[in-house]
Amino acid sequence: MNFSYEQIIPKKYLIPQILLQEFLNFIAQNMPSKKLADLKKIMKALIAGMYYLLRTGCQ
Q: What top-level branch of life does the organism fall under (predicted)?
């Protein structure tokens, strides 16, 4: 099974696209490009997961 984080996280807890883009830009500017290439595939899901945990307080 291959799920998108958008299917798993309730819509009210999804990170706004503007904020997501800010995170992606920050990471791109501060991470070596070699490591960035490996993370690009999963970066959005990682950021969305962190945002969900911060919003809900789940641990």
A: Bacteria
